[in-house]
Specification:
Distance between the termini: 114 Å
Strand order of the largest sheet: 43-52-50-45-48-47
CATH superfamily of the largest domain: YVTN repeat-like/Quinoprotein amine dehydrogenase
Number of strands: 59
CATH topology of the largest domain: Methylamine Dehydrogenase, Chain H
Number of domains: 5
Shape: elongated
Radius of gyration: 48 Å
Structural class: mainly beta
Largest sheet: 6 strands, mixed
């Protein structure tokens, strides 16, 4: 619209009662001659003077969920958040003199993509078009990508509005054809703009003077009604809007012959009131009670909020995040406001100079927003397909003073705004429903999350046996049309040929990049179980043998005779071996047993013995560790188990005699020993005795006495110097014909 010629008309609109609160996407307004206001951070409007735009009428601004400015436009150019032009932000098909030259809509379920819908002025050829802004471009400041000025229809009027689909996710973009009574409703989904509009031919034909292309169009926040102004003739209409189908019907025209022109429209937050601005020789703001009843009652509910003798004053009206409606005052440095727009008549609280623009000049327009920005709606964002083991992360749109409740598969429940489920499993697949409550309003939205299980499947299992000389084939159970396959040798076929035992793996990857690796072991078909049994003996027992046993679990046919190697480790002081070699390392005796000419049977077999003299032990039970066993040159699998030796200090064969004798004892004093000590001992009966000294390894260091002694108490003086004993722990053993006594002796030089 090139110039403003306005006259007066009263407006009647029907809206249902609806609860609503503001959105942070509308927290910043840029308009007029470098004008701007922000509602950050406390929801109180304040002038900002950093804007770079001059526009007589149409403009649009968009912020993120947190209220941070993203970009703004006059319908022909686009400025980014730092107030510079986007690199490709020129030449859009709107016009600064188009009433609503543009509206900016975020693409559903996309954090980066925004659509700028533009309308040309006075029904000119550029019509209704759209361009796409990608916020990842221009170092995060955003830029128009290759999708620019895509024409949807032409010619159209200078009006455009947007509102949520009933599903709470998609958005209707609504324009009005010029020289026609047809509304065009396009749906924006997560797939983009659906270029198959819902067309509704209803109401007054917008024709005649091109000035009739001007005037606002607004939907109610709940998407139930739509109002449209025909500027020069002063007509406006109210229609029903079906936000599920996009159809518009049941028009109610209003034509008040008072020579004022109809320009601005806005609904109250709860949808019960409609405000209209009318201009001409004087200016006015009027209220319609949409909740009054039938169309006659609504028509009769019109009241004057304010009339001002100043001509061409009140123009665009826009609902804001603080639940107030702000009004553009043409050629003034203030905005007016309606403080309580849900209230009836004078109680709505009109305020003439509500916001000081800090010297900047307002013109006719204010930014056009998605009308659902002033409504509570619930939108869930998050990844809908993910791999098992990943984290489910879902985010609900944030509002103050609202409560949230989530439900989901596998009994999931949460009252948080945003939810995460780490290490997701297939059982977490399904619909996640969020419920938002605000006062008496309840909103719900749901999203389907698919947790994909990628399991590398080996048909033969993960434990596979192979016999000598055999070649086996392992099969991948995953569909090669759906998965990339890779075996441990790098091959990508569905099968793997194996000639010997070892560790292998199968790795698969699906189209989403979900990866799983299964490791499997190929073992010899012959499994040998080798073990040392639990045994017990008395101190001093000679030629005591501990058997080495084996058992073959036969899955392969074996005919050859075999040789074996075994390694046994135990506390050196427990047993002094004979007929085998061994070393002592860190107090542990290491014995190597070998054998040959072994023919395996299916029964338990003893294939060797560890024999020797039972010595002393620090503990009653000594662990016998079978640390190695193998048949030489054979690719068998082995299961090896340890045994134990329990040592007792009393000779059991003399127990009946000992029961009738006085008790024997041995005492060492002093102990520890520095130079010498006295060993006192008692013999219940005369006996041959042997008094011996052993080191910690069970090795006999010296025989102190080997003689016949009478019954009674005896003393023996042990001189450390005579026996050249080093500092440390030793064991003293007194052996008689009937029993063995032991005690510790400490040498401390």
């Amino acid at each position: 619209m090139k110039k403003l010629i306005l006259s007066s008309l009263l407006i009647i609109v029907f809206l249902m009662q609806y609860e609503a609160i503001s959105q942070k996407e509308a927290n910043n307004f840029y308009f007029g001659d470098y004008c701007g206001i922000t509602f950050n951070p406390d929801n109180i409007p304040k002038a900002v003077t950093d804007g770079a735009m001059i526009t007589d009428e149409g403009c649009a601004t968009i912020s993120d969920w947190q209220g941070n400015l993203l970009f703004y436009t006059d319908g022909t150019r686009v400025w980014h958040r730092k107030h510079g032009l986007m690199p490709h932000g020129n030449g859009l098909h709107g016009d600064t003199s188009s009433t609503q030259s543009a509206v900016i809509i975020p693409k559903p379920h996309s954090p980066y993509i925004y659509y700028i819908f533009t309308v040309d002025e006075q029904g000119k050829p550029n019509g209704l078009s759209y361009s796409e802004v990608d916020m990842r471009l221009n170092n995060g400041d955003g830029d128009i990508n290759d999708i620019k000025n895509v024409k949807l229809t032409t010619p159209v009027c200078e009006k455009i509005t947007a509102v949520k689909h009933k599903n709470g996710v998609d958005i209707w973009i609504i324009a009005h054809e010029w020289n026609s009574n047809r509304f065009f409703a396009y749906l924006l989904t997560e797939s983009g703009v659906i270029n198959n509009p819902v067309i509704s031919a209803t109401g007054t034909v917008h024709t005649g003077s091109t000035m009739n292309a001007a005037g606002y169009m607004k939907t109610s926040p709940n998407g139930k009604s739509i109002a449209v102004a025909i500027y020069e003739t002063g007509i406006f209409e109210l229609c029903d809007f079906d936000n599920a189908t996009g159809l518009i019907k049941n028009p109610i025209p209003f034509n008040i012959p008072d020579n004022l022109h109809c320009y601005g429209l806005e609904f109250s937050p709860d949808g019960s009131k409609l405000y209209v601005s009318r201009v001409g020789d004087y200016s006015g703001i009027y209220q319609v009670d949409v909740s009054a009843g039938d169309s006659t009652a609504i028509a009769n509910s019109i009241v004057t909020i304010v009339e001002n003798p100043f001509a061409w004053l009140y123009h665009a009206m826009q609902y804001a995040p603080d639940n107030k409606i702000y009004i553009a005052k043409r050629k003034q440095t203030f905005l007016s406001s309606i403080e309580f727009p849900n209230k009836k008549g004078d109680m709505c609280g009109f305020k003439e100079n509500a916001v000081d623009l800090n010297g900047r000049i307002c013109r006719a327009g204010l930014p056009t927003f998605n009308q659902s920005f002033i409504d509570i709606f619930l939108e869930i964002q998050g990844t809908t397909s993910l791999c098992e083991g990943d984290t489910i992360s879902l985010h609900a749109r944030s509002y103050d003073s609202c409560t949230y409740h989530w439900t989901g598969p596998n009994g999931f429940s949460s009252d948080e705004l945003n939810i995460t489920i780490p290490n997701a499993k297939v059982v977490n697949t399904g619909y996640y429903k969020a419920t938002l409550k605000y006062k008496n309003l309840t909103k719900t939205d749901s999203i389907y999350v698919n947790v994909i299980s990628t399991v590398a499947n080996i048909l033969e299992g993960t434990k596979i046996h192979i016999c000598d000389g055999e070649v086996i084939t392992v099969h991948c159970g995953n569909d090669p049309n759906l998965y990339k396959i890779q075996w441990s040798d790098g091959s990508t076929e569905t099968t793997l040929s194996i000639k010997k035992s070892g560790n292998y793996f199968l790795r698969v990857e699906n189209s989403l990049g979900c990866i799983d690796t299964t490791f499997f072991v190929v073992t010899s078909g012959t499994i040998i179980k080798a073990w040392l049994p639990d045994t017990s003996s008395e101190i001093g027992t000679t030629n005591f043998c501990i058997p080495l046993k084996i058992l073959k679990e036969n899955q392969c046919n074996i005919t050859e005779t075999l040789s074996f190697n075994a390694e046994i480790r135990y506390e050196a002081s427990a047993l002094l071996p004979m007929n085998v070699t061994g070393n002592i390392v860190n107090g542990e005796r290491i014995i190597n047993l070998t054998g040959d000419k072994i023919t395996l049977t299916n029964d338990e077999m003893v294939i060797g013995n560890l024999c020797g003299t039972v010595l002393l032990a620090k503990n009653d039970k000594t662990l016998l560790r079978l640390t190695k066993f193998e048949f030489v040159g054979m690719d068998y699998s082995y299961e090896i188990n340890d045994g134990s030796l329990t040592i007792s200090g009393l000779c059991q064969r003399g127990i009946s005699r000992l029961q009738t004798l006085s008790p024997a004892f041995m005492n060492i004093d002093p102990n520890p020993v520095n130079q010498s000590t006295i060993i006192r001992y008692n013999l219940p009966a005369a006996s041959n005795i042997k008094l011996s000294l052993f080191n910690q390894l069970g090795e006999e260091v010296s025989v102190l006495m080997n003689d016949y002694e009478s019954s009674g108490e005896h003393n023996y003086q042990l001189s450390i110097v005579n026996y050249q004993l080093n500092t440390g722990l030793y064991f003293l053993r007194l052996q008689t014909e009937n029993e063995i006594l032991t005690d510790k002796i400490f040498v401390a030089k």
